[in-house]
Each structure stands twice: as structure tokens, then as C-alpha cells.
Write a structure and sequence with these properties.
The complex is a heterodimer of chains A (256) and B (395).
Chain A lengths: L1 H20 L16 E2 L4 H6 L4 E2 L3 E6 L5 H14 L4 E5 L6 H6 L9 E4 L4 H14 L4 E5 L8 H17 L6 E7 L5 H6 L3 H5 L2 E13 L2 E14 L7 E9 L1 E4 L3
Parallel strand pairs in A: 3-7, 3-8, 4-5, 4-6, 6-7
Antiparallel strand pairs in A: 1-2, 8-9, 9-10, 10-11
Helix pairs in contact in A: 5-6
Chain B lengths: L1 E6 L2 H9 L7 E4 L5 E4 L1 H5 L8 H7 L4 E4 L2 H16 L5 E6 L2 E7 L5 H19 L4 E5 L2 H10 L5 E3 L5 H5 L11 H9 L5 H5 L3 H19 L16 E11 L2 H21 L2 E12 L4 E12 L2 H14 L6 E13 L14 H16 L4 E6 L7 H4 E5 L4
Parallel strand pairs in B: 2-4, 7-8
Antiparallel strand pairs in B: 1-6, 1-7, 2-3, 5-6, 9-12, 10-11, 10-12, 13-14
Helix pairs in contact in B: 4-5, 11-12
Chain lengths: 256, 395
């Protein structure tokens, strides 16, 4: 009864304000949050952790040390997006893209489904990224900076501006941006503790750490990887999931 | 030989030149309310670029704080390129810290000829920009920059090819473009001068520091293989209007702004561009200038939208004096991609949209950056034979 009376009082207040200052001056925000379209990662445990996968219209940062499975997670997500009819782009500043491995991760490399971009200058990369996001022609975009990418002091402003602009443009598109940050073990704690521009723009930050090798007698058949949510704009952070990556001609995740 | 022109504390020097009433220490802020540039006195007090306004005031309470105008500085950079272009065909302009740098290829290997260029170059920059440059001339970009750095503004230093190694040897190792990690490693190894670093055998440097260390080693020996990169100006368009008699009527100003918006939109549409950022400069009767700017959510080349932004500026502006002129600058230009509104969103294929975007990107950045990947022979032993990467082509 008390709740209903309060609601009536609120409605009356809104009506009187709208009469006085014009219609739609005061509006009630719908309680239900807008649904976010997501792209599956190909790993059921990870999809469960991320409530469906990587969000479209937002940036997701994957932070990892080398050989932890970060690129595999990214390529599997690309394959999932392509399976849903999307085109993908891979901005490869580190010149580390391996077409054969991507193919074995089920990425469709056929023309107009997968675009590899290697800009001559790092400065062009963010502009290209923004234009592709605005074009709405790409469903998933993977950005791979060079390993141990240290941005010079004079480039910091350019990077901060570019990231902020990207943050504004992304919600208007249906593109999911995956930013892969590769660090060594020593630099990792400092990076995760810091609050750079990328950390602010990314809606989701995932730490990918390699666990135990998956052995069968003398052979290594794959490995386990721990994915931990460091930042999550859509839910609680701090949770983690273990995924298994297995090699057998094709690279298989536990969900495929 | 390569000449390097160095204008230390460029932005602060420009502001002090333009506004003689300003007294150092001076701090210039960006649109984000962070430190963009400082004068030497403020830098000595510990005010560094990218510091927040509050922190800058705490470090240097007596500093005069003003807002910076990026398009104006970009325009001055363009003017420097024009001046340097009178002396050489290949010109590069860059920044190092707060200094503006310009390199030019003198196309002469004779130090005596190069020495004659120094006073002419200095005078041309003084006449064109009103600033005193430090000029260094050597056989490569790095030794020329080092010569310009150790030289006082208004002076020049020419280093002949035979004197380069002894000149560089006593200079501190921090002259090299080192990252923090490498600087720490060199410090631990007790290497403090370029000469000490240059004396190490190349093979040892490559083993210890990799290819990037190899380049630094070559620089320390005065052997700079980096060519002059042609200057690519920040793209911007501008239109201006000067009133025959200064005005203070907002209606008149708004009408002129509408006209300027129309002119700018036409200019942008003709060149197939859209502006992401708009700057409006008010020039007052007493020759002072004030500006307002806005970053748009979506780039535009529509006159109506530009006019709405400009009228918003005019309504916010406090007119202390009558307005003598208006200058409108569009920056952060991107190619305008024509869009057709659809009744049915699913009617458009993402492949077509990707091709349209790709065409625009290839036109802008060249075909060397965009590739299609193709699996050729999955059973081949060599990775190079399994996958083929080929350039895309604009439609």
C-alpha cells in the first residue's frame, strides 16, 4: 500500500512538472536494462562466465602473457562471429598473424569474410579501426598491438584521444572490438594495477593465464587456461573460468 | 648532409610571442584540462605535459594558466614546413618533448656549403615565425639533432663527417631514444655516454639488446640509416569572415555564422570529407582572440548541423569587445562515406558495407596495409606455402 501511494505521488509530481515545463521534461527511465547482443567465444565455460559471450558495441581487452591462449580465444571468437554471418577484421600491428593457425581455429579466410590489416604507421591504426567500426561492415575486429607495446610520452595524447573517440563510436555500431595486450610476467601486475585510457574505454577486461599442460603419456595434447574477469561493465568482476584448448589437427576448445 | 632545426618549448614561445602581456612561468592547457605545454621555468618547477590542472597549480602556484589552440599550432607547423621547403626538397617535421623539430636534406656533402645555409635558414625562420631556432647540421638525422640540441637558440653547429664520432662520444646516453627498460639496463651496465656505448662491438650489442639495440648502437656511432619522412600535414579546412566595421549584434553574428557554415560544408563536400571537430575563433576589436571548440559524435559535412554548433558557440560566448572577424576551422577530417537510409536494415549485406569501407580506406592509406588471406596448400611443409597473403584492391 505504501509503495503504491509513493508511486502515485511520483506520477502526480511528474505530471505537474510536465504541465509546467512542457511535455517530456521529466521521464521515467525504464527499469529493464537494454539487451546487449553478444558473440560467443566457442568456449562454453567462458560464454557462461560472460553471460553469452563478448558484447557487441563495446571493447573487450584480453591481457595475457605469451603462450597463454589469448590469440586462440580471439580467433575462436572470430570463427563464431563468422558462423553467425559477420565479417571480421584483424588489425595486426605486431605482424604476428598466422593464417594457417587461424584456419585451424575454424576462421573463414575467404575474401570479404576476413580482412587482414597491417598499417605502415601505428598512428594510422586507430583511424582505420574507427572507420571500420563506423562502417558497420565488420562484426568483430581484433586489434593486436606489437608485443610489449610501449607508447611514447608524445603519443600518449594521440592514443588517449583515439580511444575516447572509439569509445563514443562503438555503441552506435554492432561491432565487437577485441584488443589483445601481450605482456611479460614482470610487467603484468603493474599493468593490471594501472588505470590507463584503455582500461577506461574497455567495457570488459579479461586476464588469460595458462594453467597445466594436458598430457597423454609423453605427448602434450593441449593445455588449460584460466580466464579471469578483471573489469565488467555488465556485471560483477573477479569471477573466473577454466577452458581447455586441445590440438588435434584442428584447434578445439571445450565448447566446439 | 642533413640539417635539424630545433625550436625548444615551441608552444609556450608562440604564446609569449603573440601575447606580450603574459609573463613566465606559463602553463598551457589542452581541451581536456591537462597540461599541453609549458615554458622552461614551469618545466623546471616540475610541471610536465599531461599533468592535471590541479597538480600543475600545486607544483607551480605562480604560473599563468591559459588554454591552448591546437589548430593554430598545427598551422604554424605547416608554416615551418613551407619555410624549410625553400631550402630543400625533402622536409620532415616532428616533435620531441616540447620542442618542434624540422629536418631537411641539404643534398650536399660539403660542410663548407652547409655552413653557409645556417645564417640564411635562421633568418628565414626568424622572419617567418618570429622564433629563434637552434640549427645542427651533420650527415644523419640523429647527429644533426644532437648538434641542434647542444646549440643555443639563435646559433648553428655544423659537424663534418670526420668529426661526428668525437662530437657524439661525450654526450649522455639519454640522447638516444631509449625506453625505460633499456635505459635502466644501460645504467646498470655503467654505460653513461654515447662513446662508451659505441665502443662495444656490434655483435655483443645485438646479442644483448636485439635489433632495436642494434639501431641505437648505429646512432651512437653517428650512423643514422633513417631516411627523411615527408611531412604529412594535419588535415584541416578553414573559412573566415572579417566585418567591415566591428559588430556586437548577436543576430548579425548568427547570420554570418550561418553563411560560414554553408561555405565550410560546401568546401568539405567538394573534397569528400567530413569534420569531427569544429573550432570557432572570435577576433575582437582590440586584436585579441578567443575560441570555442566541440568534438562531434558523428563527423559531418552538413551545413545545418555545423550552423547549429556555431550558433551554440555564439550564445555561450561573452563579448567583452565588438567582434571584428570570425574564423571557422574544421579539424580531424575523415572521408565522408555516403549512406542511404534503408527501410529494411537486413536488405544490406555486411560484405557490401565492408567493401565500401575498404575502398575508402585503401584510397586514404594506400593498398599496402590491407590484405586478403588465402589457404593455398594445407599439407605443405613450409608455412609460407600453406598460406598466401595478397593485397586488396579498391573497387
Amino acid at each position: 500500500m505504501k509503495k503504491r501511494r509513493k508511486q502515485r505521488q511520483l506520477d502526480a509530481a511528474i505530471r505537474s512538472l510536465n504541465l509546467r515545463f512542457g511535455p517530456h521534461t521529466v521521464r521515467q527511465v525504464p527499469v529493464k536494462a537494454p539487451t546487449i547482443s553478444r558473440i560467443g567465444t566457442g568456449f562454453s565455460q567462458l560464454d557462461k562466465l560472460l553471460v553469452g559471450g563478448l558484447p557487441r558495441g563495446y571493447m573487450t581487452e584480453l591481457v595475457a602473457t605469451p603462450t597463454s591462449g589469448m590469440t586462440t580465444v580471439a580467433l575462436k571468437a572470430v570463427a563464431q562471429a563468422q558462423a553467425g554471418g559477420d565479417a571480421a577484421a584483424y588489425l595486426d600491428l605486431g605482424h604476428s598473424f598466422d593464417g594457417d593457425y587461424a584456419h585451424r581455429c575454424d576462421v573463414d579466410l575467404s575474401q570479404s569474410r576476413f580482412l587482414l590489416i597491417r598499417p605502415e604507421r601505428a598512428g594510422d591504426a586507430l583511424d582505420i579501426l574507427q572507420q571500420l567500426v563506423v562502417s558497420n561492415g565488420i562484426g568483430i575486429l581484433v586489434f593486436v598491438p606489437p608485443p610489449q607495446w610501449i607508447v611514447q610520452a608524445e603519443q600518449q595524447r594521440w592514443l588517449a584521444q583515439g580511444l575516447r573517440r572509439l569509445g563514443r563510436l562503438l555503441p552506435q555500431s554492432s561491432c565487437a572490438v577485441l584488443w589483445l595486450t601481450m605482456l611479460d610476467q614482470a610487467a603484468l601486475p603493474g599493468y593490471l594495477g594501472g588505470g590507463g585510457d584503455l582500461a577506461q574505454v574497455a567495457a570488459l577486461r579479461l586476464l588469460v593465464e595458462r594453467g597445466a599442460w594436458d598430457r597423454k603419456k609423453q605427448d602434450i595434447r593441449g593445455y588449460q587456461t584460466e580466464v579471469k574477469v578483471i573489469k565488467n561493465r555488465f556485471g560483477p568482476a573477479g569471477k573466473g573460468a577454466t577452458i581447455r584448448i586441445r590440438f588435434n589437427g584442428t584447434v578445439r576448445g571445450d565448447g566446439t | 648532409m642533413i640539417a635539424c632545426v630545433r625550436l625548444p618549448f615551441f608552444i609556450a614561445q608562440v604564446e609569449l610571442r603573440d601575447k606580450p602581456r603574459l609573463k613566465p612561468p606559463l602553463v598551457i592547457l589542452s581541451a581536456l584540462d591537462q597540461v599541453l605545454a609549458t615554458c622552461p621555468q614551469a618545466a623546471e618547477a616540475g610541471v610536465l605535459p599531461r599533468l592535471a590542472r590541479k597538480e600543475a597549480i600545486a607544483r607551480c602556484p605562480q604560473a599563468t594558466i591559459i588554454g591552448g589552440t591546437l589548430p593554430y599550432y598545427a598551422d604554424l607547423k605547416g608554416q615551418l614546413v613551407t619555410i624549410l621547403g625553400r631550402f630543400a626538397n625533402q622536409v620532415e617535421v616532428g616533435e620531441a618533448g616540447q620542442a618542434l623539430l624540422g629536418w631537411l636534406d641539404l643534398e650536399s656533402q660539403n660542410p663548407a656549403t652547409a655552413r653557409q645555409v645556417v645564417p640564411l635558414l635562421g633568418q628565414a625562420i626568424r622572419d617567418g615565425l618570429g622564433l629563434d631556432p637552434a640549427i645542427g647540421i651533420a650527415s644523419g638525422k640523429f647527429p644533426a639533432w644532437a648538434a641542434a640540441t647542444v646549440t643555443a637558440p639563435g646559433k648553428g653547429l655544423v659537424i663534418g663527417p670526420d668529426r661526428q664520432t668525437p662530437f657524439l662520444a661525450p654526450l649522455p646516453i639519454t640522447f638516444l631514444p631509449l625506453d625505460a627498460d633499456l635505459a635502466a639496463r644501460l645504467h646498470w651496465l655503467g654505460l653513461t655516454t654515447l662513446g662508451q656505448f659505441a665502443a662495444i662491438p656490434s655483435g655483443s650489442v645485438m646479442t644483448q639488446f636485439g635489433p632495436s639495440g642494434g639501431l641505437l648502437h648505429r646512432l651512437a656511432r653517428g650512423d643514422d640509416p633513417r631516411p627523411i619522412q615527408p611531412y604529412r600535414p594535419d588535415r584541416q579546412e578553414q573559412v573566415a569572415y572579417h566585418f567591415p566595421d566591428p559588430v556586437d549584434d548577436l543576430q548579425v553574428i548568427n547570420r554570418v555564422l550561418e553563411r560560414l557554415a554553408g561555405d565550410l560544408a560546401q568546401l568539405l563536400q567538394t573534397t569528400g570529407q567530413a569534420a569531427q571537430q569544429l573550432w570557432l575563433f572570435f577576433e575582437f576589436e582590440d586584436a585579441s582572440r578567443e575560441n570555442q571548440h566541440l568534438t562531434l559524435r558523428q563527423p559531418t559535412s552538413e551545413a545545418k548541423r555545423i550552423a547549429a554548433v556555431l550558433q551554440g558557440f555564439a550564445s555561450q560566448q561573452v563579448f567583452r569587445e565588438r567582434v571584428a572577424g570570425l574564423l571557422l576551422i574544421a579539424t580531424e577530417l575523415v572521408p565522408a562515406v555516403a549512406t542511404q537510409l534503408d527501410l529494411f536494415a537486413h536488405g544490406r549485406q555486411s560484405g557490401t558495407q565492408l567493401q565500401t569501407a575498404l575502398d575508402a580506406l585503401v584510397t586514404q592509406y594506400g593498398p599496402a596495409a590491407f590484405y586478403w588471406v588465402q589457404i593455398t596448400d594445407q599439407t605443405a611443409w613450409l608455412l609460407e606455402q600453406r598460406v598466401q597473403v595478397r593485397r586488396t584492391q579498391a573497387a
